[in-house]
Each structure stands twice: as C-alpha cells, then as structure tokens.
Amino acid sequence: MISRFGTIFFDDPVAAFANLRRTTRPGGRLAVAVWQPRDASEFQTLAVDVAVRVAAQHGYELSPDPPDAGPFAYGLPEYVTPLLEQAGWVDVEFEPHDLELHVGGAGTTSEEAVEMGRGFGPLARLLEGTPPEIVDAVTAALVDEMEAHWDGTGVALGAAIATITARPAEARKNSSPHR
Predict the structure, then answer these.
(1) Which residues touch 176 (CB under 8 Å, ≥6 apart)?
(2) pLDDT tens, 68-115?
(3) Domain segments of the chain as ranges
C-alpha cells in the first residue's frame, strides 16, 4: 500500500489503516509519505508566518492552528505509531526527510503559488472569515515573499516530510525461514 499525503486526511485513522492492512497481500507492506509538523517546514509555515505578521501590522489578529494540528500530527512518530499498531501493523519505521519543493510545481509563478495557498491548506484555513482588505494585504506581501524564493524555475522552499513504513501483523506471524 502506497500513499503520498493521502492517509493524513483519514477521518478514522485506526479503522482506515486496519482496512488497508486487511487488503494488503501476503508479504506486502505499507509505505506512506506525510508532512512533518508545520513549523518544521518552510513550505508549510512561510505563508502562515507572513499572514500573521501582515495582519498584525494592519491591527488584525490571526490565530494559526498549532503546528501539529490535523494532518501535521502524522509527522510525529508518537502520534502515528500507536495508530498503526492499533490497526494491526508492526515494524513501524519513521524516517524524516528534508528537501526542497516548488510551490505548485516547477513553472508555477509567485502569483499562482499564492493563489494556490489561498485555496487550501494552512493559509486557506487561517484566512477564513478574514476581512477582504486584510486578505489583499496578505496576498500582496506573500507575492513579494514568493518572488524572493524564485529560483528561475519556480518558487522553491524547504520542506520537511517523513516516510512511514510498516508490515501487517499477520505477515510477521506467518513468515517462516522454512517456507
């Protein structure tokens, strides 16, 4: 079973991971990519930090979610390991990775990167219900900030992800060196 940032949206992670375990073929394994907590990743926190700063400059307070809220909790071994074990997975391994990603992919302009961030994720949640003039000020500041990270092919930011692997408990019980 392979997931690239999909399992972080499970409503009932123990049940969902248990279902994945039941449908994993004998000898199979789970391999997922997740975000580390938001504050570990410039890719996730830069826009939030700029938005909070710009809003405050305009006399408006924005309150971001905690850095390990929601999907970012999956980037904590102490959160995800017990979920997987409750769902019947064993040999859980957690490996952090630091890399550079282009916001929106290579070729995305600064304006497009900001618009994408306003559409979903931590920035979108933060700006929900914010007065339009504050959103406009934040947007202008973010475009400038993204321009500062333009590398000639896109907006490049440091990103902190993790890969998590595990095996179904049955595979471990049934594995034998004499097979």
Answers:
(1) none
(2) 999 999 999 999 999 999 999 999 999 999 999 999 999 999 999 999
(3) 2-174
